[in-house]
């Protein structure tokens, strides 16, 4: 089954509009702007309000934009109170860092897998300072779906302004494979709407 899904994704990549007619974002002013395979940030874009996440809720030094950082710490604190560990393992990444990461995927697993699993330079949500990959500090984040923390996040993250950015069976819209560990801050109102309507950020922006 996995092999069939992989083949279907390869066909979809070949016939998609991903990385075509790309729009450049110069000065994002909202929290719900879309960075994806058709919308990229400039090489020199660095959010001006990046702040260090409290190390109780992050693996090593991790940064998010101020509002996202405050919301994440509140979410992680409330989760911990309920007996769950939500730990940030990847947050802001620079343009150059993302370039090296993507190139590593291409070298190790090939071009098509790289495009399913990683963003090209300028196209990564992590450069926005609003995206966070999480784990429960026990299992690798690749196994986050198998944790009780994943269920907690699905049921609660939107209340703090975060959405599951790359849901299952939405590859044809987002351009990325299912990532149960990857969450994006968009603000509480937008996150609730996306959650309640079971849509992606792309679909939300298309209809607003």
Short description, anyone?
Helices cover 39% and strands 16% of the residues.
Q: Could you describe the 3D structure shown?
A:
With 208 residues, the chain is an alpha+beta fold. It has one domain: Muramoyl-pentapeptide Carboxypeptidase, domain 2 (2-Layer Sandwich). 39% of the residues lie in helices and 16% in strands. The strands form three sheets. A four-stranded antiparallel β-sheet has the order 5-6-8-7. A two-stranded parallel sheet has the order 1-2. A two-stranded antiparallel ribbon has the order 3-4. The protein is globular, with a radius of gyration of 16 Å. The termini are far apart. The model has no long low-confidence stretch (mean pLDDT 93).
| Tally of structural domains | 1
CATH class term: Alpha Beta
Distance between the termini: 37 Å
Q: Indicate the multimeric state.
A: single chain
Name the poorly predicted regions: none
Rg over C-alpha atoms, rounded to the nearest angstrom? 16 Å
> What profile does the largest beta sheet have?
4 strands, antiparallel
How many β-strand stretches? Answer: 8
The percent range for helix content is 25-40%
Overall 3D shape: globular
């Amino acid at each position: 089954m996995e092999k069939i899904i992989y083949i279907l994704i390869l066909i979809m990549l070949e016939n998609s509009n991903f990385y075509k007619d790309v729009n450049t974002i110069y000065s994002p002013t909202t929290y719900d702007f879309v960075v994806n395979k058709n919308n990229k940030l400039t090489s020199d874009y660095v959010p001006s309000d990046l702040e260090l996440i409290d190390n109780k809720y992050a693996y090593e030094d991790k940064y998010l934009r101020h509002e996202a950082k405050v919301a994440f710490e509140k979410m992680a604190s409330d989760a911990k109170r309920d007996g769950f560990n939500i730990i940030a393992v990847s947050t802001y990444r620079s343009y150059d860092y993302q370039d090296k990461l993507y190139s590593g995927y291409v070298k190790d697993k090939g071009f098509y897998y790289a495009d399913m699993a990683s963003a090209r330079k300028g196209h990564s949500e992590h450069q926005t300072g609003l995206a966070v990959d999480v784990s429960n500090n026990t299992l690798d984040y690749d196994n986050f779906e198998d944790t009780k923390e994943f269920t907690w996040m699905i049921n609660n993250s939107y209340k703090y302004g975060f959405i599951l950015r790359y849901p299952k069976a939405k590859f044809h819209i987002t351009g990325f494979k299912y990532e149960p560990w990857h969450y994006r801050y968009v603000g509480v109102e937008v996150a609730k709407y996306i959650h309640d309507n079971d849509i992606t950020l792309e679909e939300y922006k298309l209809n607003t």
